[in-house]
Design a protein that fits this description.
Elements: H1 3-33, H2 37-49, H3 55-64, H4 68-92, H5 101-128, H6 148-172, H7 176-181
Helix pairs in contact: 1-4, 2-3, 2-4, 4-5, 5-6
Length: 182
Amino acid sequence: MNGAMQKNVIVISLIELWLGYEFLVSGWNKLVLSKSFTSGLSGYLKAMIGGQTGWYSNLINQSILPHAPVFGYLIEWAEVIAGIILIVAPLFLMPRIKDNILVHKTFSILSILALVSIFVMSLNFYLILKWPSPLPGQGNPYTPGVSFDFFIAAMSLVLIWWNVVGMKSISREPTEKTVHSL
């Protein structure tokens, strides 16, 4: 692995570590500190949807609200598990561990699954808060240009792409044994 690629791996790993910490703390706060998250999720969603109409409010009203406590538990545990994976995985995906392709692919797949769950959760939170379009000229001048939740959703997609590309490239890299045997 060349120097520039190694710096990219370090930067991406630091971003995954930060994202993992963010979701671990968020999930832990819901799981341990808030004894009412699962029971209060229904009321929170009803207040956020308000008189809103459209496909997303229909989805919330018809699919999520009737099962809000179950989704509450799923959110709590998904945030904790995704956070743990995104903290642990970059440590195993450092260049010195890449010799073991099975370990590398396992942690890459776990990272991708964690990032997909983070993408879905962040995008849902972005939609329920009724944030404006992230495109220029579409928003309110008194709100941030791009919400943090939209940024996390977009960053999750970048990290998913990075992990998929990294997983494909690691299986194509020649090992020292094959290089020396040539």
